[in-house]
Amino acid sequence: MARLLACFLAQDGHPVVLLDHLPNAPETEDTRLYALSPLSLQILETHGLYSELGPKRCRVFSDLEIWVYHEPTRVRFSASDIGGFLLGGLVYARDLNRVLMERVSELGIPTHRFDPDQLERTSQGWVIGTGDAAFQASLLVVAEGSHSRLRERFRIPVETRDYGEEALTFGLATEHDLGSTPRQVFTPWGPLGLLPAPDGTLSGVWSMPAVRAREWLNRSAPSFEALLSEATEGMGGRLSLLAPPRSFPLRCLHAQTYVGDRLALAGDAAHVIHPFAGQGLNLGFLDACALADDLKRSGDGSEAALRRVLMRYDRRRRRENQKFLLALEGVRMLFRKPDLLGLRALMLGALAQVALLRRPWVRRATGSQGRRLLVP
């Protein structure tokens, strides 16, 4: 997120320095797969980055299928529901990061390793570093992820909720080709997302209570594969793990303000959501766009103008993200509870049959909401 925003600001003519104090994971170990919305793809295209990914590193899809374990109705959301061509693209984190690093280099954006404790607030902004290596900045954007040391240092209040869950992530090879359609099945053990990766494998994310996740991590590969086959009701034929599953704890986090004195939060430093909808990175993309756009129109660059920019950014993005978090929690609870009255089955049946009912869901999920969708 920090690299993306740095590229946006540099392309708009702002002097930018990229600060990095987090160790980089080896690319061979980073198997995260991002689901980018059409709007996120359009943002990349506008800045000349989408073409750098290309079809070999970004697998686009036009349909999304969801269902509830052992319930007959399957709902297929389609780009055609809103007159579009695609619902999104799937890209490995390592590939997206590589493209962004190359653009940072092309734009000549300096990157400095720094100690977060070597950061001081002054009347003119910030002094970063010490001695001859120190430099000044008028604005500090914190986009260092959910465990932000700077957010904690500046005591920006956050609302958090521990789901008591962990997400198991893993790669799969399938006996039968499942095409490019991502799938989400709400199992009795937790929501299971299956994403077709650009390299032809399948990437899985299975959220479940933490106790169960830790127990299942210790299962043998054949035992875990049997659980997956049961959860997916035999879809894809034989499923084979490509590597042992990994896990990470799940929580919800939302900063009570996204801004401070010459300071702004963006991406996971400002908000963290449940991964079952795959929208976390897309919200961060919109943060970056909104902040870059507001700074572009900031006027004379005075302290008063910067304060107005930050207040506008906070008002726009915190409100929009809060609305999304609430909607997402409602959907999560809908599929988490037993359908004792049959209301969920009735709703899914209506969604499966009536495209008009699916449109608001598709618009919200894709981020289109009246905007033009990218044509691949």
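Above is the first protein from milestone M3; the second protein from the same milestone is given next.
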Amino acid sequence: MNAVNWVVAGIGDIARKRVIPAIQSEPRSRLVGFVTRDPAKIAAYPGTRAWPTVEAAVANPEADAVYIALPVAMHAGAAIAALRAGKHVLCEKPMAMNFAEAERMVAAGCSSGRLFGVSYYRRLYPKLLRARRLIAEGAIGRPLVAEANCHSWFVIEGREWLADPALSGGGPLYDIASHRIDAMNFLFGKPERACGLLSNAVHRIAVEDSATALIGYPGGVHGVVDVRWNSRVARDQFRIIGENGEIGLDPLNGPELRVAGRTEMLPAHPNLHFPIVENFVDAIAGDDPTRLACPAEQAAWVDWAIEEVVSAQSGSF
């Protein structure tokens, strides 16, 4: 196959640290340019060019795929514009500000005939793939409940847009719970119901500083996700409890998987975004949307669950 020519929309923290290096190191990929309001930012990437808008970038016939690394409020407009221009799209998470927006994005993807994926890269963690196989094999019996906690302190320097609900949608529910909700969706399927609580327990900011989601899955599995920007003790916990045992994945971003009294070491790729970029190129090469680690249709399940949690609030946090 010819190289996949990428445009990256946004040159923020995640793009610089992970997305751009992933594209540059993927052997079938070529980075051709960026969408940015500050063309000076591309000086670090010789041989690339800058466009002021996604619409201008996708008018270039050289571009094949767009990686959307913009604030959440800009995802829908950017993705729909790129898809309508006939470009493949890989979008950062969460895919949208709300479920209706996510549905419009999915519809645009379906009508475009192009691939549309979302970067829920934990689906490609070797330990999460292993956990799904163990569940399917009955290693812990019937699964009953999955629990995830991700706690940290509110440090927003360099990512100030995260504290602006007009750009981010919300706080840790959108930023870090989305990954964990998707991990549970990956393990247990499409959620059937969801509710939860949001609060500002410590920080008086425009978004919540803590959120707890309760999600119901087919077969009676319960998912509990608690995320916080108000804990000075960092936590990254994830476990799956079944009738006959449990699978421990603490810390979720570490290599350890514990089951039946043994520990397996299954480290993720050093660049967490590389496998999702590689997977996307695989799908393009095979012209096969079924290869996508997280197709947009499934990513929208996260937006549905988040909206259910938000709508359960009777007032402000």
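Note on the second protein: The two ends are 51 Å apart (CA to CA).
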